[in-house]
Automatic annotation (TrEMBL):
One of its GO terms (cellular component) is cytoplasm. InterPro entries: CB, DNA_brk_join_enz, Integrase-like_cat_sf, Integrase_catalytic, Integrase_recombinase_N, Integrase_SAM-like_N, Recomb_XerD, Tyrosine_recombinase_XerC/XerD. This is Tyrosine recombinase XerD. It comes from Microbispora rosea. Residues 1-87 form the Core-binding (CB) domain. Belongs to the 'phage' integrase family. XerD subfamily. The active site is at residues 149, 184, 255, 258, 281, 290. One of its GO terms (molecular function) is DNA binding. The keyword Ligase does not apply. Keywords: Cell cycle, Cell division, Chromosome partition, Cytoplasm, DNA integration, DNA recombination, DNA-binding. Coiled coil: none annotated. Forms a cyclic heterotetrameric complex composed of two molecules of XerC and two molecules of XerD. The lineage of its organism: Bacteria, Bacillati, Actinomycetota, Actinomycetes, Streptosporangiales. The gene is xerD.
């Protein structure tokens, strides 16, 4: 049953390998929990058994450390999905996890850097025309200019970006092109590519990528490493960390550039649903957390500028 559910998640839901590995680990622990309570079939499971599993996750034991709310919530989500699947497949006649809610998580506001800091970061890639410097600048411009996840950026192929002004698969209006990103669950979206990212990509594609590709065996990947193969997520992370260190910035991550992309759009007056589409969020609820950031900024501006703001 467990293997059937995981196959369903992989094939029909298109979950990533990392997510599947986490679900597999959580659900194996759940099955062990049920067996320890003398339960051998899903038809025997009661709501109290699921609640007890949640309590065990939060408390921990000799073999497992206590899980934080976010990790426990992921495990509960996996369990709820498993029982829904069992009910749908006729393995059980009821869903004991239906009313069990995951633990409430503290809302953490996404961190963003300022526009000036973004400019410092990109400038820290270096003005030199070495292939790696040109690649690094193009990578950071794409991450910030499109709000792409790091996996989406390194997953780009040359055919996913317009090549020159006559690329037949994309609209071109002079200063702006579009790039195709493939997000979670295999969902694809088209995102505008601004002038700075376009110029950085042009420089990389013309003056750097051919030189890097000469060291490899041929790959359609857009961003290449020094050996001519596809740049990995770890490699992209190291590019960002090196640029951040040179720029004197700490704690900068690829996802922080994505947060900055969204925050700066909202600060500039963009509608939250437009930002949702650009980020590839399935629900606008996920995007709305960024509006709290901009509200904080409004308070700061009000407190600094209004003559009767400070009492």
């Amino acid at each position: 049953m467990l293997s059937s559910y995981l196959a369903h998640l992989a094939v029909e839901r298109g979950l990533s390998a990392n997510t599947l590995a986490s679900y597999r680990r959580d659900l194996r622990r759940y099955v062990e929990h049920l067996r320890a309570r003398g339960l051998e079939t899903f038809a025997q499971v009661a709501e109290s058994d699921v609640v007890a599993f949640l309590a065990a996750l939060r408390e921990g034991d000799e073999d497992h450390p206590a899980l934080v709310a976010s990790s426990a919530a992921r495990a509960v989500s996996a369990v709820r999905g498993l029982h829904r699947f069992a009910l749908r497949e006729g393995v059980a006649g009821h869903d004991p996890a239906h009313e069990v809610r995951p633990p409430r998580q503290l809302r953490r506001l996404p961190k963003a850097i300022t526009v000036a800091e973004v400019e410092r970061l990109i400038a820290a890639c270096g003005p030199e025309d070495s292939p790696l410097a040109l690649r690094n600048r193009a990578l950071l411009e794409v991450l910030y200019g499109t709000g792409a996840r790091i996996s989406e950026a390194v997953g780009l192929a040359v055919d996913d970006v317009p090549t020159g002004s006559a690329h037949e698969d994309y609209d071109h209006d002079g200063d702006q092109d579009q790039v195709r990103l493939r997000g979670k669950g295999g969902r694809a979206r088209i995102v505008p590519l601004g002038r700075f990212a376009r110029q950085a990509l042009d420089a990389y594609l013309v003056r750097a990528r051919p030189r890097l590709a000469a060291h490899g065996r041929g790959t359609p990947a857009l961003f290449l490493n020094a050996r001519g193969g596809r740049l990995t997520r770890q490699g992209a992370w190291e590019v960002l960390q090196a640029a951040a260190e040179r720029a004197g910035l700490s704690g900068v991550s690829p996802h922080m550039l994505r947060h900055s992309f969204a925050t700066h759009l909202l600060d500039g007056g963009a509608d939250v649903r437009v930002v949702q589409e650009l980020l590839g969020h399935a629900s606008v609820t996920t995007t709305q957390v960024y509006t709290l950031v901009t509200v904080d900024k409004l308070r700061e501006v009000y407190a600094a500028a209004h003559p009767r703001a400070l009492h």
